[in-house]
Each structure stands twice: as C-alpha cells, then as structure tokens.
C-alpha cells in the first residue's frame, strides 16, 4: 500500500479492480481545510483518462508494471503473437489487450508489453513508426502551396491524412500517440 506522498508521474495503482497510471498530479494545500491531491489518471487497458481527487494521506494499492520489449510476429484468430527477445518464447496476446495499437503494428517490428505480475496489461508501440503507403490518389503538380491534405492507406490498413505530394510507395513516419503523419522518410 502507498499513500498520496508516493504519487509521481507514471505511478501505477489499482482502483475499483482496474489499473490506472498517473499522468499528472498536483498537491493542493488550501488556506482552510485539509490538503488534497488532484490527479489525472489513465486506464492502462482502455486508455480512458479521468480526474480523481485524493485526500492527503489516502492509501492506494500500488502495482508494479514491467515493461518488456518484444517482437511482433503475426496475428491469427484474434490473437497477436509476440516473441520475447531474451528467451525466444512466443506469447499470445488477445486483440482486446492490443487495442488500437493493432492499426499501426507491423510484422517483425518491436513493441513494448506492459506486464503486471503474470498478466499482460497493454501493448505500447514506439513513439514513431515508418510505414509504406499502399494506396493514395496521385498529387497534382502545383497543388502543394495550399496545405491541403488527402487520405492515404498504409501497409497495415491504417488511413492517415497526408499532404498532396505524398504518392503510393512512399515511406512515412507516423506518430503512434496521435496517429498523425509526421514526415516522409
């Protein structure tokens, strides 16, 4: 058990049977009344963010998360298979656990699995991935000055908005946190 003085960004706790990670916290000491801690918590499974206030000295159950880098191999019948880079064990992970990361997950690329005890909590991708454009409308010469965008389908099936000068076969850098186009690689 930990109390509010142990709160730090990234601190993981169990609340109401769910795992939450602290994104942001603020210790408040009003002139009248007792101190409290305002937090912004992110659900590690769903990614939902909620605001929660704790009184100073409240106890919470701290959970230790292990972040392990693994290589994504393939998916089959709703399971995604990852290989541990140290032991070469293949670990199946459910589609619900992988969540939205599956839209930018490419075979033989590395990802991070967050593990609480023996349970895989979630899959995190690196901040940026490079993917090839498989389909997009051709750009028209001279149309790049307006800042207009068009949809482009990437090799994983994910559709991202890109500038007009991007063509089929281009390799793009995509931010996995926002899902947006960053630059052409």
Would you give an account of this structure?
- With 185 residues, the protein is an all-beta fold.
- It contains one helix and 16 strands.
- Strands 1-6-2-3-4-5 form a six-stranded antiparallel beta sheet, with no helix packed on it. It has a five-stranded antiparallel beta sheet with strand order 9-8-7-10-11. Strands 14-13-12-15-16 form a five-stranded antiparallel beta sheet, with no helix packed on it.
- The longest helix has 4 residues, at 95-98.
Strand and helix map with partners:
Layout: E1 2-3, E2 12-15, E3 18-28, E4 36-43, E5 49-55, E6 59-62, E7 66-76, E8 79-84, E9 90-94, H1 95-98, E10 110-116, E11 119-124, E12 128-136, E13 149-154, E14 159-163, E15 171-175, E16 180-184
Antiparallel strand pairs: 1-6, 2-3, 2-6, 3-4, 4-5, 7-8, 7-10, 8-9, 10-11, 12-13, 12-15, 13-14, 15-16
For the biggest sheet, the summary is:
6 strands, antiparallel
Order of helices and strands: EEEEEEEEEHEEEEEEE
Helix segment tally: 1
Structural class: mainly beta
User: What oligomeric arrangement do these chains adopt?
Assistant: single chain
Compact summary:
With 185 residues, the protein is mainly beta. 2% of the residues lie in helices and 55% in strands.
Q: Which key terms come to mind for this protein?
A:
185 residues; mainly beta; 6-stranded antiparallel β-sheet; 5-stranded antiparallel β-sheet; 2% helix; flat
